[in-house]
Amino acid sequence: MLQVDIRELARGPVDIAGELAGNYPLFAGLDFVLAGPVQVRGRLQAAGEGRFYWHGRLSAQVTEQCRRCLAPVAVNVAADIGALFTPDPEALEDPESYPLARDATLIDVAPAVREELILAVPRYVLCHEDCRGLCPRCGHDLNAAPCGCAPAADLRWRPLAALKDKLRF
Ligand SMILES: [Zn+2]
Ligand SMILES: [Zn+2]
To answer: Ligand 1 centroid vs 140 CA: distance in angstroms?
Structure first.
């Protein structure tokens, strides 16, 4: 659990170290797959006026699909986190701020972990830099072997060729 009792924070900063399981309910519905738990650490401290500031770090391994060939790719993700937990609704316009009920007795850093994890996961990954991808005609994985389809015409230049034809007449 990555929750800290606010009474403990009144006595001084509290170090957090732990993990959130990949199947933690807060992680449901993400468009990448966690390959294991999310490791979390950092220091939470009172910041006055009922606010608390957490400076932490997350690390995790996620599984994504290669953008070209759709093979699963393991990606290591890490991010620094600066999060302000505040009961002031106006402060919540800041994306680094998280709501805190005025009568809260605990601070749960998991929502900040979720947000920063989403930002830290790369949107496009390749299984390796020169991945050949899938054949656009038959779907064969061209990393394994050529598929025998005739090479596709280079579509990028067709609009230019059409324009040249128009200009000629
Ligand atoms: Zn690939
Ligand atoms: Zn093919």
So the answer is: 12
